[in-house]
Task: structure prediction
Amino acid sequence: MNEVHAVIELRITPQRECGFGKIAERVSKFEQVEACFLMSGGYDLLVFVKGDSLQDVAQFVAADLSTIDGVLSTSTHFMLKTYKAKGILENIGDSRLEIS
Result:
């Protein structure tokens, strides 16, 4: 089984007395979430997730992430090919992505 990995940008409303922490903690507790970071710039949280399929990740975003109180918007980016991960350069070659 091939896993699907995605990066999701979340724009959230900071909450009184706890800022971004409470929402970040709630997001981080989902088993699909591999990592969650507070970011500067155009969005607030950067979330790395994995799922069994594109539909699985899309369902997670629609049903779980986007419905959290304080989440204003999400933007999902699917990882299509790995060139370097954890400091290790992959065998890039001249291969093209498979079309299925």
Observations:
- The chain has one domain: 4-81.
- The two ends are 15 Å apart (CA to CA).
- The beta strands are 4-12, 33-38, 45-51, 71-78, 84-85, 88-89.
- Residues 39 and 68 are 19 Å apart (CA to CA).
